[in-house]
Every structure is written in C-alpha cells, then in structure tokens.
Amino acid sequence: MEQQWILHLKNISYNYPDGTLALDNLHVKIPKGQRIVFLGPNGSGKSTTFLHMNGVLKPQKGEVYYEGQKLSHKESKDLWRKVGIIFQDADTQLFSTSVYQEISFGPKNLGLSNEEVKKKVVEAMEATDVSKLQHKPVHFLSGGEKKRVSIADILAMDTEIILLDEPTISLDPKHATELMEILEELHKKGKTLIISTHDVNFAYSWGDYFYIMKEGKVLLEGSYQEVFKQQTLLKEANLEVPWILEIYYDLLEKGKIKAPYPPRNKQELLKYL
Question: CA dihedral in degrees (221, 227, 233, 235; nearest 10)?
C-alpha cells in the first residue's frame, strides 16, 4: 500500500535577513497519523522547518505540498488552519485576558458559530484538564498550566497536524508525563504529531519516524531501528546515543541479555532482564 504523505517540504531553502542560511535544500515527507521527531542541536534548523510547515515562513526556494496538492504562496498562508504549532515558550503563544478567551480565539478566527466555538473550547479544556482554570488570567498560570493551555489552543482548532517545539523543556517530570498522556490520546485519534527536540532519550522512546538535522539539512532519516544504530552520524549531529541503548549494547556484548530487538523504554529493558 502506498504511503500517505500529509505534508511534503520539497527542496526548501531559506536565509534569514542577517544572511544566516537556516534551511539548505531541505526535503522531508510527513506520513499521516504518525509520531514524527526532528532531532538536532540548537541552530540545526528544526524551528525554521516548523515555521514553514505552519505557513508562518514562505520558502525562498522550493515547494510545499499538503495532501499531495502543491500550495501557492497565498495558499500556504492558510496552513495554520490545518497545521497547529505549540511553541517552546508558552508566553510567545498566550496573550488573551483569560484562559477561556485564549482557547476560543482560534475557533472564532475559523468563522465558527458561537455554539460551535463553545463546544470546541469545552472539549479542548476537558482534554487538557484546564476547565477549572477557564476564568483565570493566563499570566497567573504556572509553566505546566501554560503548556496545557497552549495545547488546548490547538485542540480547539482541530488541526490535522500538531507541531510541538521542544515540548518537554522546562517541565518537571510530573507535567512532562501529563503532556505525554495528552499526546498519546491525540495519536489514538489519528492526529499527525511532529515534535522537535534535542532530547534523544525522550525522542527514542516516543517517535515512529525520525529526521536528524544539522546545519539546515537532513543528515539521517528513518525508523528508530534505522536511525539509532548509526552512532557515528548521531555524534556528527552532536547527539548522544539514548542511555537505554548504551545499556542494551553493553549487556548484549557481555552475553547477559537476549532480545529480538532493542528496547524502547525502561519497562521493555526490565522484561529482557
């Protein structure tokens, strides 16, 4: 069966006004309904890639396709209706007086009726467990609460694709776990989830397909089996091997473990032991 590509960035190049080359002939295809990870150090082009996926930036060279349809520059402006983005710093995204007003902003701009807007907002608040905060000013929220409201913003718009830029950064373990539970529910509903991060341990345990970036290019791509065995290329991208793989390879070499495939998480590793 032929793979369904929901989003395709073809040979994209982009220079910032100061002359910095952010993307250099970038070519990526996003499979529908999967969990995609863009891994790379700061400055590798991950965030700039996201802004092209969302239509905030227009490619200076190259083309953008959505569900197989090539988008004109004018059409790419409307990608925000299909591709929601959750920024690394929630304060960049949140600006309304109250949580309810914040979450209702997107659906209102989609031209939905008041009744539809209310329905979308209530569903988004329930999904992210922020209903009790709906009348609270956004600037009084904690970091974890702001992150959940940022996600509710996008859920209320019901976009097909959700981009998350460094989603776990600055979150404590409790809030990071809550975030992952929300993402898992979205994945079950068929949403296409795309994350950028330099946290290889989180990425390895979560992603279905990986793009390793360096200096505005894709250095390596593939499934976790294909990508994380390329240790030399990971080091070239200034990325470490996930700790769980280091333990696995060490035990394998010493003959202390037999496993049909590398473990993805601590639970799988413990099963092998």
Answer: 120
